[in-house]
Write a structure and sequence with these properties.
The protein is mainly alpha-helical. It has 37 helices and ten strands. It has five domains: about 5-65, no CATH class; about 70-420, Na+/H+ antiporter like fold (Up-down Bundle), CATH 1.20.1530.20; about 425-485; about 485-635, no CATH class; about 700-915, Jelly Rolls (Sandwich). The strands form three sheets. Strands 1-8-3-6 form a four-stranded antiparallel β-sheet. A four-stranded antiparallel β-sheet has the order 2-7-4-5, with no helix packed on it. It has a two-stranded antiparallel ribbon with strand order 9-10. The N and C termini lie far apart (about 90 Å). About 40% of the residues are buried.
């Protein structure tokens, strides 16, 4: 074929695709339905023109469409990687993971169920082998969610339903193609695999694809910063990634290329925004959206053109078999949707899905380009008998046509029948109230504009009269809002706050005051807030906004690495991420308070706005408390982060000023570009987050601890070898009542609360806890909980014993604390308390006291040694006392971590002053 002719045919297809898009919108149909119809008609027309004896004038162009210059392998290699990679880029992966249960059921489990249902239903009737029937089942098990997702968005369905359908399509394509490849290999290579061998082959191909996709995507992401100011190069790299992954996986590593591409797109989507400028990431998405549109439309149109060729020779028995496929596929999907999804919601693995939406998902199981492409590959496979390839190709193509022409055209009428296209009472009431306010505002602005532009009053009056009438009509229906219950109106306001917060996040991202590292987390959070608010109302909003203030599993894992293996970098990174997140989270809350007063109060009234303000203020307080807890421990780092945020805002304001000056022709292009280079240098420096030093060096903690400050350097060095630094988070339970004592803890900074049977006792810097269980050999007698961020020194039991033996002064002090502390830990009378001190400590102390008494008192600066000793103990107790102010929610300490590195005398003086506060809560020392 001549190249110009092929190019002309390609241009004709692009024109057809461009014209079908607005036509589909006008007709209210999914574009894939029209593409299938038009493609089939083009195929029929081309076949007629090629083989009709009436004329040969169109044979050349008709032959291009009847026998296109692309085969199934070319279609798979050219278009499939684009489609899969773009779908991965558009999904909110973090939100997908929240519904991973139903998605995996709808995807992987549903593919196996559909393959089995269709294969075993056809086997008794088709006269084909079971493997051939199962192969057909795997081909038609893939779904095309585009139409369903688009309709869900139009009718305002819960966003999570769209995510479930999109996630299902992405994963079931991968699962179905893996099954397809395994079954095709069995048919063509005549290898008999047992069920266990088939599952092992599936797992190897699937897991291998995950590994290859992850590795290649991480390599690509690591290269992106080298192209920071080159968006075209970044897009080019992102385009090379899916193709390179597909070829490497399919041709060289022999794992699932589809799974590898999906995984590569997912990883790129997760880590790419943190390494690409926000505007460049938007540009990359725009390019990929265009590429995906071309790929999806062309693959669908090319496959549809071949439909007449595929269904050639359709017989009555084929119609019967097609009916069996339709019923089996629908039954398999119904079993999964109405059988397995409710089980997931019952056990808490997924949220409940309304039966009406289940019906739409069931009926929306249309098949599309992937199914047609796999059918095309079967028709061209030389290793398959012609009767097998014909059987699979005809039924797969017929099933695709049925789903598009029946499901696709009847989906919207079904939605109208179920009433899903109508606004609920809340939305209808909000619509009328908002319309009334908006029309009144527009009317005032139009009146002002008419005066400014000197428009005749007669003309102005007619236009304003129309707005007056519309506003009055809307105002007459605003009583619907008053009829709603308070909790309904509060939910409306909270949903508006959640949607506004997502918009604020995007605005900050576009203004470059939020880094790419943070924006995906914030978008995930705002999406979760919106979903929970819609489903659970005020309680859902509060639960969703409090969730990020907690410490997740990743943080706990990093903390475990620090404690067990002394690896501090992951924990430092987690704390730095938390610090940055909390600062932005506080700013968002402040902006939402302003939005509530400006926009929601006029719309929903003062009563609802006051309730919303209370919710927001509580959120602000909790966020500030979390920030203060970190600030007390790391004040310099907090200042550095806030300074960095201001520098980002300053760079954005500078850039805006320069852009406005250029737009007003005050400066030229060259000067504008030069100024932007300076800004970019400032911005680049502001994105380099300062490193957070946890301050967990054992030497510093030991030398700064009041118990060890006066010890000789040699003894401090020996103690350092015994000690292990430990970092604790607010409300973390450090010791549990009833456990065996395995370590004692010395507080270097922060505060803890000992929850003893008689009372709760708070300990601070310089205190020791956990030693009584070591000295008595008993179990822990109380829980110990961190009140804020704490830096501790832990000492194992055998090391504690060695420390007591080697340092008499420390031993005496600890024994005195233990005796005093046991009195505070119990409500028994003093004479009933068993001596907590282990005999070996008690006997040694008694021997020393007896020797001292025999020697007589020794004067030391006017005081006896006993008096000096008493004074020393008193001063030590006074020195280690700490004031702790416990908040309502997370009970944060007010003792500043800055004192950790300050002069001990100064710290003691400040604590003594604090102890004079008449509102001081109970202080003392305690242990368990």
């Amino acid at each position: 074929m001549e190249t110009p002719l092929i190019t002309g045919a390609f241009a004709l297809l692009l024109v057809t695709i461009s014209l079908l898009q607005p036509l589909a919108r006008r007709l209210g149909l999914a574009p894939s339905v029209l593409l299938a119809m038009v493609g089939t008609m083009i195929g029929i027309l081309a076949t007629y023109l090629l083989y009709t004896p009436r004329t040969d004038a169109f044979n050349t162009i008709a032959n291009v469409f009847v026998n296109p210059p692309v085969d199934s392998e070319m279609i798979l290699y050219i278009f499939l990687p684009l489609l899969l990679f773009h779908t991965s880029l558009t999904l909110d992966i973090r939100r997908i993971l929240e519904d991973i249960g139903p998605i995996l059921v709808m995807a992987v489990v549903a593919v196996f169920v559909a393959t089995g249902f269709i294969g075993f239903a056809l086997y008794p009737l088709a006269g084909m082998s079971l493997v051939a029937c199962l192969l057909l089942g795997s081909i038609v098990a893939t779904t095309d969610p585009v139409a369903v997702v688009a309709i869900f968005r139009d009718i305002g369905a819960p966003a999570r339903l769209g995510r479930i359908v999109e996630g299902e399509s992405l994963l079931n394509d991968a699962a179905a193609i893996v099954i397809f490849v395994i079954l095709l290999g069995i048919l063509t290579e005549h290898q008999a695999l047992t069920l266990s061998e088939a599952f092992i082959a599936f797992g190897r191909s699937f897991v291998g694809g995950l590994v290859i996709g992850t590795v290649l995507a991480r390599l690509a992401v690591s290269v992106l910063p080298l192209m920071r100011d080159l968006p075209l190069a970044q897009v080019t790299l992102s385009l090379a990634l899916p193709y390179g992954t597909y070829v490497l996986s399919d041709q060289f590593v022999d794992v699932s290329a589809v799974v590898a591409v999906v995984c590569a797109g997912t990883v790129f989507n997760l880590y790419g925004p943190a390494r690409i400028h926000p505007s460049n990431w938007q540009f990359l998405h725009s390019v990929w959206e265009q590429l995906s549109y071309w790929a999806a439309s062309l693959i669908f149109l090319l496959s549809a053109i071949l439909i007449p060729k595929f269904v050639e020779g359709f017989t009555p028995i084929d119609i019967l078999l097609l009916l069996v496929v339709i019923i089996a596929a629908l039954a398999a999907r119904a079993v999964v949707i109405f059988g397995l999804l409710p089980i997931l919601s019952t056990i808490g693995a997924g949220q409940r899905v309304n039966s009406k939406y289940k019906t739409v998902i069931l009926w929306g199981g249309m098949r599309g380009a992937v199914t047609l492409t796999l059918a095309l590959s079967v028709s061209e496979h030389t290793g398959l008998p012609s009767e097998v390839s014909g059987f699979i190709t005809k039924l797969a193509t017929g099933f695709v046509l049925f789903t598009l022409l029946v499901y696709g055209t009847s989906l919207k009428p079904l939605i109208r029948l179920l009433g899903l296209d109508r606004l609920n009472a809340r939305d209808e009431a909000l619509r009328t109230q908002f319309l009334s306010l908006a029309l009144s505002d527009v009317r005032q602005e139009l009146e002002t504009a008419a005066k400014d532009y000197h428009i005749d009053e007669n003309v102005t009056g007619k236009v304003l009269k129309d707005y007056d009438e519309r506003a009055a009509a809307a105002a007459s229906e605003t009583n619907k809002l008053e009829e709603l219950k308070d909790w309904d109106r509060v939910r409306i306001g909270l949903i508006a706050l959640a949607d506004r917060e997502q918009q604020l996040v995007l605005e900050h991202f576009h203004e470059k005051t939020i880094s790419g590292r943070s924006v995906s987390k914030f978008l995930t959070l705002t999406g979760r807030i919106g979903d929970l608010t819609r489903s659970e109302g005020r309680a859902g909003y509060i639960k969703a906004t409090r969730q990020p203030l907690k410490f997740d599993l990743g943080f706990r894992f990093s903390q475990t690495l620090q404690r067990r293996l002394r690896i501090t970098r992951p924990l430092a990174n987690k704390l730095a991420d938390r610090f940055e997140f909390l600062l932005v989270y506080r700013i968002l809350a402040d902006e939402l308070v302003d939005f509530n007063n400006r926009r929601i109060r006029p719309l929903l009234g003062d009563r609802v706005a006051d309730i919303l303000e209370d919710v927001l203020c509580n959120r602000q307080d909790e966020t500030i408390q979390a920030i203060d807890a970190l600030r007390l421990q790391y004040p310099e780092y907090a200042d550095a982060l806030e300074s960095q945020f201001l520098r980002k805002a300053g760079a954005r304001l500078e850039e805006t000023a320069y852009d406005e000056a250029k737009g007003q022709m005050l400066i030229g292009t060259e000067l504008h570009q030069d100024l932007l280079k300076d800004i970019e240098r400032v911005r680049k420096a502001s994105y380099e987050r300062p490193k957070l030093d946890l301050g967990l060096k054992t030497s510093d903690l030991v030398s700064a601890h009041p118990l060890f400050t006066d010890l000789p350097r040699k003894q401090q060095k020996a103690i350092r070898r015994m000690m292990r630094p430990q970092f604790a988070t607010p409300r973390e339970k450090l010791i549990r009542k009833g456990d065996r004592g395995d370590a004692a803890y010395f507080i270097a900074s922060g505060a803890v609360e000992v929850r003893a049977p008689a009372q709760n006792i708070r300990l601070g810097r310089g205190d020791v806890f956990g030693e009584i269980a070591l000295m008595t050999g008993g179990r822990r007698s109380a829980d110990v909980v961190a009140l804020g961020y704490c830096q501790l020194l832990s000492l194992r039991a055998q090391d504690f014993k060695a420390l007591m033996e080697q340092n008499p002064d420390v031993r005496e002090h600890v024994i005195a604390l233990a005796e005093r502390r046991q009195l505070m830990n119990t409500d028994k009378p003093e004479h009933e308390i068993e001596d907590p001190v282990v005999p070996q400590f008690k006997e040694e102390t008694a021997a020393e006291d007896q020797a001292q008494e025999e020697a007589g008192p020794v004067e030391q600066d006017g005081e006896t040694s006993e008096a000096a000793h008493t004074h020393q103990n008193s001063a030590a107790v006074e020195k280690i006392s700490v004031e702790v102010k416990v908040t309502d929610e997370i009970r944060l300490t007010n003792s500043t971590a800055a004192n950790d590195e300050s002069d001990p005398d100064q710290s003691s003086e400040e604590e003594e002053q604090a102890s004079c506060d008449p509102t001081d809560t109970k202080k003392g020392t305690a242990s368990n």
